[in-house]
Amino acid sequence: MNDRERRGRQGHHRERPDSGTPDTVVIYGWHPVREALQNPARTLKRLLATENAARRLAEENIQAGIPLQIVRPGEIDRLLTADSIHQGLYLETAPLPAPAFGELRASDIVLVLDQITDPHNVGAIVRSAAAFSVAAIITTERHSPSATGVLAKSASGGLEHVPIVSVRNLGDTLDEMGDSGVMRVGLDSEGPATLEGTPLSGPLALVLGAEGKGLRQRTRSLCDALARLDMPGAIKSLNVSNAAALALYVARQQVKA
């Protein structure tokens, strides 16, 4: 195993189309690729592996399901950025299937992230979303992180259970949600009612804004309701990933999975 394969353990999972191929997602690194190979919802397209990585897959009895192409590490290097830690594995797949808004069930919850940029926070949100059976996470193409190694590590496997959909215009997407019958509730520390005191119905979209800035004005205006999480202690606000977990717990009391 060479130095490039040894460095780091988190790998990288970019849940966004590779350049010029809008139907292809690039995943690399031991743990993200292993999880993707074991996910029956993934449509696999191309798998590159070094001899050492291929041997490890065989030793752990991980079946690729597609032909595995043995390559030198440098061949994977050329497909990625200079600081990418691939550990000898590179996988191309189709994006995870996400339900259309009109197909969401009354038991479905969707998370909408309005320009949340910290990959640690987004990764933790993904993990909570997987725990609370979230149907999809909507992010913006700009001002949001791709699923980097930091995000993949923070998500602790959640990326294989919750589709992430990047959209160009969040306002238009919220409009489309409303037209499809999705209730849109924005989390706002100045909201007129508490989230637990707000009547919720599914399908439901919980909309979260970036720490500090909160929801943008147009995002706020397109929500059906604004709600706050009341904090009885001295600190009145939570980290956005903690707020997401708490909001999902509260929402699941009314919108049963």
UniProtKB/TrEMBL annotation:
GO terms for biological process: methylation. Its EC number is 2.1.1.185. Transmembrane segments: none annotated. It comes from the Bacteria. GO terms for molecular function: methyltransferase activity. Residues 1-24 are annotated as: Disordered. It is an enzyme of class 2 (transferase). It holds the Pfam family SpoU_methylase. Residues 26-99 form the RNA 2-O ribose methyltransferase substrate binding domain. CDD domains: SpoU-like_RlmB. InterPro entries: Alpha/beta_knot_MTases (IPR029028), Ribosomal_eL30-like_sf (IPR029064), rRNA_MeTrfase_TrmH (IPR004441), SpoU_MeTrfase (IPR001537), SpoU_subst-bd (IPR013123), tRNA_m1G_MTases_N (IPR029026). Keywords: Methyltransferase, Transferase. The keyword Transferase applies. This is 23S rRNA (Guanosine2251-2'-O)-methyltransferase.
